[in-house]
Each structure stands twice: as structure tokens, then as C-alpha cells.
Amino acid sequence: MYKETDLGFEDLDDAVKVSVATGRLSVKAVEAIQVLSREDQREINRLFTTLKWSVNLQWRACLWITEIASREGQSVREVIEDIAELATKGTMNNPQKVRAIVKALRERRFPAIMESERSFKKVISHIALPSKVRVVHPPFFEGTDYTLEIVFRGGEELMETLARLQNTAGLDEITDFWKTKT
After folding, report:
1. Inter-residue contact 67 to 79 (CB < 8 Å)
2. CA distance linking residue 147 with residue 5, whole number of Å
């Protein structure tokens, strides 16, 4: 059996320890927040225990919250307060609230990537791609190659789709969305 000192949890806030013991807060998230003050640990714990978060989302959100706080010169509490209102919106269910919070955190942590993604989606939405065809941007726009996905049942359908693609207007609008607009 592990003792809390074996896991390095002796400096954690008691509420955080209870959340880990009951499975509401992941060990992975605790590893990301154990260097924070007990007050900040409590704030992050409160955010995660009010809604059901996956282990990976907890960990990512911890990293993003601390990075945003550091970059913007705010406390962890201030960052959480800025996004916490999303968790109180009554019109969304809990998974939707988590997605809204994650999206808000991504916006603040990766503003350039999010702007590139918006620009990409806007351009792609104005292109009349054949059904079962999708253009995928490079992950995090960290590359210059796009992927074209075509779903088809046989060679004849593929040839028809490729012929339609060849005559699709607007494909030349797919460009380097990550480059700064001046």
C-alpha cells in the first residue's frame, strides 16, 4: 500500500487528497498542480470536481491554466474565475460545459493556432467539396502539408469524386493560414 509521502502528496491541500482518493481528481493532474499553492490547488480541484473531466483533459487544463497565469501575469485563481462562469451556464449539460471551458482555455493558451483554425474553417466552409471529401489541416498548423480524405466504395465512385474535385472552385484559397496577416 502506498503512503501519501511515497507519492509526494504530503504538501497537497486536504480537499485535493480527498478528491484523489475518491477518483474525482487524477494523479496525473495532481502531478501538474502539486507545485502550486494550496489555494491554487483548491481552485483547480473545485473546477474539476464540479464537472466530470477525463484524466487527459484534467492534465491539459492544469498545464494551460498555469501557463496562461504565468504568461498573463495572473494568479491561477484569476484565470479560473475568468472561465468559471462557463460552468454555471444552465443551458448546457456537464460535458458541454467541460468542452466550453477547454475551448476557452485553448483560445487563451494558443491564440494564433485558434485564429488559424477559424480562418481555415471559414475558407473550407465556402468550398463546395463533394460529399465524403474532407480537407484536414496539419496538426496545430505545425507543417505545410494538408491531407485530403476521400471516402468511396469503389473505383468508379473514386473517379467521379476526383473529377468533381478537379472542377471545384475555391481550392486555391487553401493557403498558409498560420502566417501572420499584415
Report:
1. no
2. 48
**Alpha helical stretches, state H, the chain:** 4-7, 14-21, 27-33, 38-50, 55-72, 76-84, 94-109, 111-125, 155-166
Could you count the other beta carbons within 10 Å of the beta carbon of residue 148? Answer: 12
pLDDT of residue 10: 77
CA neighbours within 13 Å on the CB side: how many for 170? 12
DSSP-assigned beta bridge partners for residue 76: none
Three-state secondary structure string covering 128-181: CCCCCEEEECCHHHCCCCCEEEECCCCHHHHHHHHHHHHCCCCHHHCCCCCCCC
β-pair partners for 149: 134
Global confidence as pTM: 0.72
Residue pair 48/15 in contact by the 8 Å Cβ criterion: no
* pLDDT tens profile 1-11: 444 444 567 77
Task: Tell me the per-residue pLDDT of 121-168, one tens digit each, with 9 for 90 and over.
Answer: 999 999 999 999 999 998 878 888 999 999 999 999 999 999 999 999
List of residues 6+ apart from 137 with CB closer than 8 A? 116, 117, 120, 146, 177
C-alpha cell read off for 10: 504530503
